[in-house]
Amino acid sequence: MKTEITHHLTPQLLMAYSAGTLPEAFDLIVASHLSLCDACRAEAESYDAVGGALMEGETSEMSAGSLEATLRMIREGGAAEADAPCAAAPPATAELPRPIRDYIGGDLADVRWQGMGMGVRQAILPVDGPATARLLHIPAGAEVPDHGHKGTELTLVLKGAFRDEDGRFGPGDVEVADEAVEHTPVAEAGEDCICLAVTDAPLRFAGLMPRLAQPFLKI
Amino acid sequence: MLSNVDWLDEKAAWPVAPPDPPPGAGTVAFLGDAALARMSDTNRSGTEGAATGAGDAAEPNAAARAAPEWVEHVTRIRDARDEAAFAELFAHFAPRVKAFLIRSGADGALAEECAQEVMATLWQKAHLFDPARASVSTWVFTIARNRRIDALRRQRRPEPEDLPWGPEAEPQQEDMLALQQDSERLAEALRALPEKQRHLIERAYFGELSHGEIAAETGLPLGTIKSRIRLALDRLRHALK
Ligand SMILES: [Zn+2]
Question: Which domain of life is it from (chain A) (predicted)?
């Protein structure tokens, strides 16, 4: 938490993350922001408390012998993977939050970027479900591509910064944009900007160069 | 107190501003020490009509524990692998986890199997439970939720970077107690909400609303819990340095 975070997640997203009802890509960006932002983490955990209170309200009878079966499972070491103590401690040198490192299988240096033209690079992360997640590498001073979006798009800054009509977004800041938002983010001069972007709309930059060129020409 | 109109307007635009009202703002009043009264309360089962059975009927005492006592039970499992403590936790929480999973769309057999796995996970992860940040109910809910995502939706659940806590960060007894009592008050406040509002919260947690349809204002006293969790996080961050 090197810099002050000024753009946070919405209460709706934090509650949905706590309820466990978001697409995987959205879970990923929420978990990444929470890794960097204790204000939102405390809020998300307070929504967990709502879930706990809700769960108190209803019961459904367990079958006969279920306690004994569970104790047997425990003695046989089933159910949960054993936790290696201290495995959780982040390497002091990590550049990316752990949720993203888990999807890369490494850190920033291990990202397999694909060129998108005009110096912009992307790496699509392997998430399941209806929403997609990708890392974007925007050269300092360049425009962030593809920001006339359908659906909801969340963008979390990991390195560098961008600016648009809503202000400056630095490391840890997240921009929540729905269809109504029209904006043209530009990476700040001086440092390349690396972001995690997730969207529940179809990904338009699916891979082939001829198709890639089109959105750029519109800019 | 709060407007029902906000609740009914499911298409309300998302606020882009940081969701950070001052602690206590927009909350309902605390209901006194209802939490303590709960310790002797016998009418807690069946607060919801949809209950499919009185799961803890065989263990009348198990249902009457207050939140701080559940913390002791988890500690006894962590420190002494205490099966009697586990049996009491099981009698109270397993039927609740099962009901939660059924409400979320699992059939009875799957819910039963997952509830057992959730309770086994509670045993295995007892050393990770942090009573300065969660009640046992809250913690069991997060395990059950993750199990649901895995079993019903078959997707991964990215979690925030862990903040490991060691001896230096051992929570203060009174902070822990305060958080536990806040959690009980939250449960009371949830029960006291008008039916319509509670129903909207249930729909959000049982997966019947998209994030765009969720109402921001719950009408619940979350401000104090949030600030207490924040303090506990600050302490962990400090201990990590
Ligand atoms: Zn935040």
Answer: Bacteria
Residue type, A91: P
pLDDT of res. B168? 58
Nearest beta carbon to residue B16 from set A16, A47, A176: A176
pLDDT at residue A78, rounded to an integer: 56
**With 60 as the cut, is the pLDDT of residue B90 above it?**
yes
pLDDT for B5 beyond 70? no
pLDDT at A116: 86
Q: Could you tell me the pLDDT band of residue A58, with boundaries at 50, 70 and 90?
A: very high
CA distance B143 to B125: 10
Q: Which residues of B touch A74 (CB under 8 A)?
A: 120, 123-124
pTM of this structure: 0.81
Q: Per the structure, how many domains does chain B have? A: 2
Buried b (16+ CB within 10 A) or exposed e, A52-61: bbbbbbbbbb
Q: Is the pLDDT of residue B3 over 80?
A: no
Residue B54 domain-assigned? no
Contact at CB, B134 and A48, closer than 8 angstroms: yes
Strands (E), B163-208: none
List the single residue in A47, A73, A99 with the smallest CB-CB distance to B116: A73
Q: Are residues B136 and B217 in the same domain?
A: no
The verdict on B171 touching A (C-beta cutoff 8 Å) is no
Instruction: Write the CB contacts of B23 (distance below 8 Å, at least 6 apart in sequence).
Output: B223, B224, B226, B227
Map residue B190 onto helix, strand or coil: helix
The pLDDT tens digits of the residues spanning A117-133 come to 889 999 999 999 889 99
Domain span at B92:
64-155
Cβ distance B51 to A176 less than 8 Å, yes or no, reads no
- Same domain as B77, residue B4: no
Alpha helix ranges (H) inside A94-157 = 98-104
Task: Give the right CATH number for A11-83 from 3.20.20.80, 1.10.10.1320, 3.40.50.300, 3.40.50.970.
Answer: 1.10.10.1320
pLDDT over 60 at A165, yes or no: yes
Best CA proximity match to A162, nearest among A193, A139, A137, A117: A193
Give distance in angstroms: CA of A44 to centre of ligand 1: 10
Average confidence (pLDDT) over A67-87: 71
Q: Which of 46-105 (B) contact A at CB < 8 A? A: 47-48, 50-56, 83, 86-87, 90-91, 94-100, 102-103
Q: Which of B116, B127, B202 sits opposite A66 (nearest CB)?
A: B116
